[in-house]
């Protein structure tokens, strides 16, 4: 929703905005005299000190950031050979990635959560929010970015709502692409594998004086999972899981003057995917998205910079189901009226049960029941006269997001980032919202970073958001980093963050309508009898997070070793649970979840540029559900322990290998007590570069091996093949 402030704001003027405090002569002979390094060399902007951009919207030394961050840079992404963003997130401790067959989509959660349409963190691409308001989710299959264009992915593992608002409730995934002027080469790539796995990419770049641009395009298709035969989701005949996606992306950069910069981005995407049949004979989703973004930056002085950003998104989703020979009685307008008054009685009538829940003291309810019994009581076959037609579930979304961000360095060691923003969401959907709805949101934020001394870096932040209709939420953060050296620190972070109910939870008016209906029934209408209405009175859910962390980067056996570990406790209150179904009676809120545990990541780079990376997460979950929910509803995706290990090795003759292993313990063993299978996967990417004066060609072989035939996530399907492979080639010129 916000970001890119730190990327475009501070990179060009980091030295002027965040100069470190150098020790004085008196300090060097006082309490700093015992330090192992020369205090006069304390420089947090030094090139050999790792930096991140996301946690505080500021280019900071990693040892000083107020939170835990995982960075996946361009080199690492290329080494893995992975083409899908969601798959890269498996290298982030505490992040779980699974496949949801019910929506034929990827599900990504941090620590734990529902498996279908999870919604606990913000995803940004160069400052543009990828959260779709209509169905309240991130569509990982439709992200308008190619991995070849990514400079780095920064994942803030913890609440970051003080910087990025309500959707940054538990984490932020910030995807930062290369500046157009940094991509000097044109490139063409192609990949082919089993599972109908195809990937194509092309890029061209250009410049003219102060103007630079990059035009890139990608397309992929896959049918990676075993076709489902789950009758509960309508797969009487095996359901396909095809996915197809194409995108065109244009990025431009303009250096208007020494103090002014203008960056733009335009993306167009088109996607198709099969979804389970449910009551239909076929069912698929098509979507188109257009994004436009303009970011203007102006250095008012060496210590003051302002940034104006405007993002616009148009998203059109079309779901087309074909209904053949459905019971026409389900579309009887009298039954729908009864359902609106007494849904339990309507369900009993449909199931042929006695109407024990009927309120006979209500004349309207009693009259409807009598009319229905008169129609079908003596002739039940009339209820099953077939009806056929098309069932459409379309949404059309528009979003405008405007923001002014102000960055001021009051002194060399005291920086404030503040701003105000406005976002307007407009949605038209007859099936989901019975027409047109909109929402206006206003936000204001402020973050202060204060380097008190060479020993201490402090951070405080606050965000206030107000949505039309009276819903508001505030988030706050306090953090203290004790610096053992510029490359080593201990941090303590407390956060409070809120997530306001999304539109589908709060304001849905969901019905199914048959288009071009054909039936011989004299009673059938075109609207399905059952529907879902959002309660309209949900309150924000809140998280209180406490984190104790330790970061260090050190020389080690001629190379460098870097690690980050943390202990944490996260208390979630008033947790909202909404299973997206038209038959849902209500949204469940008031639930409580507590996560406690530890996470760690380690990277060791040898003198020969080999690299070893390890991640681990140990997690304990305590769930207090309300009403009829159980633990596995709220945290269907959950792993008490999850680990990854990777080894990158250069070999002679420009041959390189990346070997990765993933071990994830199945949380169902705790939450559900059923027979569960841990997820064990091994992946290899082997490639060779061929270079000449004008071109670089890379040939690659990538393979994956699953060591279980079960699925990590409930209600899903495993890969069609336990062993998968892809062959790819790319040429840069």
Describe this structure in words.
- This protein has two domains: 5-324 and 392-732, Maltoporin, Chain A (Beta Barrel), CATH 2.40.170.20; 332-378, no CATH class.
- Helices cover 11% and strands 52% of the residues.
- It has a 22-stranded antiparallel beta barrel.
- Helix 7 packs across helix 8 (343-350) and helix 7 (333-341) runs antiparallel to helix 9 (363-376).
- The radius of gyration is 27 Å and the shape is globular.
Keywords:
Maltoporin, Chain A; 11% helix; 5-stranded mixed sheet; 13 helices; 52% strand; mainly beta; single chain
**Count of runs of 4 or more consecutive helical residues:** 13
- The CATH C-level name of the largest domain is Mainly Beta
The portion of residues forming beta strands comes to over 45%
Which word captures the global form? globular
User: What number of domains?
Assistant: 2
**CATH architecture designation of the largest domain:** Beta Barrel
């Amino acid at each position: 929703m916000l970001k890119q402030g730190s990327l475009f704001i501070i990179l060009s003027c980091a030295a002027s905005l965040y100069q470190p405090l150098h020790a004085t002569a008196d300090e060097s002979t006082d309490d700093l005299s015992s330090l192992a390094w020369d205090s006069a060399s304390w420089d947090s902007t030094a090139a050999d000190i790792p930096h991140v951009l996301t946690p505080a919207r500021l280019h900071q030394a990693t040892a000083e950031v107020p939170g835990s961050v995982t960075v996946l840079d361009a080199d690492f992404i290329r080494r893995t050979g992975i083409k899908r963003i969601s798959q890269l997130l498996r290298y982030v401790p505490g992040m779980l990635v699974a496949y949801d067959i019910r929506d034929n989509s990827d599900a990504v959660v941090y620590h734990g959560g529902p498996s279908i349409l999870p919604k606990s963190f913000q995803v940004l691409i160069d400052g543009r929010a990828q959260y779709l308001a209509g169905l309240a989710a991130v569509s990982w299959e439709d992200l308008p970015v190619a991995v070849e264009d990514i400079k780095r992915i920064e994942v803030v593992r913890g609440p970051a709502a003080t910087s990025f608002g309500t959707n940054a409730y538990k984490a932020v995934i910030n995807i930062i692409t290369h500046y157009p002027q940094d991509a000097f080469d044109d490139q063409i790539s192609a990949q082919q594998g089993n599972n109908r796995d195809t990937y194509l990419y092309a890029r061209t770049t250009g410049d003219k004086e102060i103007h630079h641009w990059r035009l890139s395009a990608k397309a992929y298709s896959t049918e990676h999972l075993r076709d489902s035969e789950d009758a509960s989701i309508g797969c009487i005949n095996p359901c396909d899981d095809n996915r197809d996606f194409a995108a065109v992306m244009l990025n431009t950069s303009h250096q208007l003057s020494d103090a002014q910069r203008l960056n733009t981005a335009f993306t167009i995407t088109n996607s198709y995917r099969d979804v389970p049949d449910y009551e239909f004979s076929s069912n698929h989703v098509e979507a188109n998205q257009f994004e436009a973004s303009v970011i203007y930056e102006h250095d008012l002085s060496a210590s003051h910079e302002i940034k104006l950003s405007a993002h616009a998104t148009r998203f059109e989703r079309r779901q087309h189901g074909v209904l053949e020979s459905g019971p026409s009685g389900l579309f009887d307008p009298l039954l729908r009226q009864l359902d609106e008054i007494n849904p339990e009685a309507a369900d009993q009538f449909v199931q042929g049960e006695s109407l024990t829940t009927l309120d006979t003291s209500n004349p309207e309810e009693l009259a409807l029941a009598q009319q229905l019994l008169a129609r079908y009581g003596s002739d039940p076959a009339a209820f099953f006269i077939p009806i056929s037609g098309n069932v459409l579930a379309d949404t059309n979304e528009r979003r405008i997001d405007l923001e002014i961000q102000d960055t001021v360095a009051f002194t060399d060691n005291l920086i404030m980032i503040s701003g105000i923003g406005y976002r307007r969401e407009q949605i038209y959907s007859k099936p989901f919202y019975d027409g047109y709805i909109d929402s206006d949101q206003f936000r204001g934020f402020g973050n202060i970073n204060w380097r008190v001394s060479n020993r201490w870096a402090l951070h405080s932040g606050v965000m206030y958001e107000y949505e039309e209709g009276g819903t508001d939420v505030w988030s706050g953060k306090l953090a203290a980093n004790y610096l053992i050296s510029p490359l080593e620190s201990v941090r303590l972070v407390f956060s409070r963050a809120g997530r306001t109910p999304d539109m589908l939870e709060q304001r849905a008016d969901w019905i199914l309508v048959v288009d071009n209906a054909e039936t011989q029934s004299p009673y059938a209408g075109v609207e399905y009898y059952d529907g879902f209405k959002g309660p309209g009175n949900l309150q924000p859910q809140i998280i209180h997070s406490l984190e104790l962390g330790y970061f260090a980067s050190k020389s080690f056996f001629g190379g460098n070793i870097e690690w980050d570990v943390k202990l944490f406790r996260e208390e979630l209150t008033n947790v909202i649970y909404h299973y997206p179904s038209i038959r849902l009676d209500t949204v469940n809120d008031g639930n409580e979840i507590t996560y406690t545990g530890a996470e760690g990541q380690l990277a060791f780079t040898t003198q020969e540029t080999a690299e070893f990376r390890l991640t681990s997460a140990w997690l304990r979950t305590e769930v207090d559900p309300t009403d009829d929910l159980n633990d596995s509803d709220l945290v269907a995706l959950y792993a008490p322990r999850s680990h990854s290990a990777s080894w990158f090795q250069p070999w002679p003759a420009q041959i390189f290998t990346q070997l990765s292993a993933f071990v994830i313990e199945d949380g169902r063993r705790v939450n559900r007590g059923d027979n569960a299978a841990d997820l064990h996967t091994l992946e290899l990417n082997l490639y060779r570069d061929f270079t000449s004066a004008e071109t670089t060609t890379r040939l690659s072989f990538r393979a994956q091996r699953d060591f279980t035939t079960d699925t990590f996530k409930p209600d899903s399907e495993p890969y069609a093949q336990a062993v998968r492979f892809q062959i790819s080639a790319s040429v840069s010129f």
